[in-house]
Amino acid sequence: MTTSVQYNPLDAATLADPYRVYAELRSTTPIFWHDQMECWVLTRYKDCQSVLLNPEVFATDWRRAGETVAEPWLSLQTLDPPEHAPLRSLFMNALRGRDLNAIGARGEALVDSALDNLGDKAEFDLIPEVIAPLALATISDLLGIQCPELSTFSNISDTIVRSMDASLEPDDKTRAELRKQGIEARAQLSSLVESWFEADPNPGMLADVTSKRDSVAVPDHFVRNTVRVVFQSGYSSIVSGAGNAMLALLQHPESVEKLRDPELFATGFDELMRYDCSVQGTSRMATRSTTIGDTAIERGDVVLVLFGAANRDPAQFPRPDELLLDRKPNQHMAFGRGPHTCVGNLFTQVTLQALIKSVLRRSTPLRLAAEPVRRRTATMRYLDTLPVTFSAENPTEQTAR
């Protein structure tokens, strides 16, 4: 077995810039065993892609490798072909039935209103003031449910996101507590989902899924669990993705002006997703003994596919650490790859584009007002704060004068 590498995704320096660490790992030990996480870690684009495109060998459904999976965890996210096909079809058809352009337009109007109200402030935090309300409003709009109270749901979501990194904590007690909190938060969200199914559905994705549920031969809890996953992952992906994209633009102010060119917007948006993706990795389990490159993988071994590392692989992306808005081709992995490509990726893109388009329309550009703060989460790359201003000068500079 390859010697374990000292790699701590929750280290402060790694949280600030994981891409520097990925580059070092890629050049020295592109495939390595991580003792604490008990998994193989992949950092090269070609290796990540080979795993994601081979669900027969690398399973999302760990039951196929002999593991026991509790019922609340079984959803579209944790099933493999062919079992997941009817469920994926049910949700994809419901998604296609939504007017995503209209949802995007309502999202833009929401951002416009929020920025209008915040325009006179010397400084404000883009995450709680604009991005989180946008994420919750649009995912609720998509499903056709009453928008939950933001502070309550954001606490549930944040707890679930933190629990994803429980295995990275060195302390046994901390790991156990994070897992316990994550289970409790998912139970709270499941109760909320149950209330949506019990209510008369409004027009939306949930109503479509409910009305066509009987035509799909899958257990009912698969459907309900998938609604929970779609809602939670939709919200968290938008909050994290929007924060990362806006920070990249604020750190590259020349890119804001370039994105005003409609012909550059599409490629520019893809490049923002590649440059600093929200989901940094995902896991698969080997259903049989195999190899990745020269590395032997045994049945039951877990393999961690690092999207963030793959998206900065110079073998796939020339000048990978530069934000190149006209980059072509750009087959990034920000939304996954293969049969488990994010089911809501089109919706997520529409929502993130709504935010960026609204910001681009402002006559006065946004500027960073202070250093942003990263959350101590690794699976989801999140900003905790993103202080911004419409002022021509940094408020702290004005105070100093």
List keywords for this structure.
three-stranded antiparallel β-sheet, Cytochrome p450, alpha+beta, 15 helices, 401 residues, five-stranded mixed β-sheet
Task: Give the SSE map.
Blueprint: H1 12-16, H2 18-28, E1 31-34, E2 39-42, H3 45-52, E3 58-59, H4 85-96, H5 100-118, E4 124-125, H6 126-143, H7 150-163, H8 172-198, H9 205-212, H10 220-251, H11 253-259, H12 262-275, E5 281-286, E6 290-292, E7 295-297, E8 302-306, H13 307-310, H14 345-361, E9 367-368, E10 373-374, E11 383-385, E12 387-389, H15 395-400
Helix pairs in contact: 4-9, 5-6, 5-14, 6-10, 7-8, 8-10, 10-14
Task: Please explain how this structure is put together.
The chain has a 5-stranded mixed sheet. Strands 4-12-9 form a 3-stranded antiparallel sheet. A two-stranded antiparallel sheet has the order 6-7. The protein has 15 helices and 12 strands. It is an alpha+beta fold and 401 residues long. A hairpin with an 8-residue loop joins β10 and β11 (383-385). The protein has one domain: Cytochrome p450 (Orthogonal Bundle). Helix content is 50%, strand content 10%. It has helices spanning 12-16, 18-28, 45-52, 85-96, 100-118, 126-143, 150-163, 172-198, 205-212, 220-251, 253-259, 262-275, 307-310, 345-361, 395-400, and strands at 31-34, 39-42, 58-59, 124-125, 281-286, 290-292, 295-297, 302-306, 367-368, 373-374, 383-385, 387-389. The protein starts with 11 loop residues before the first helix and ends with a helix.
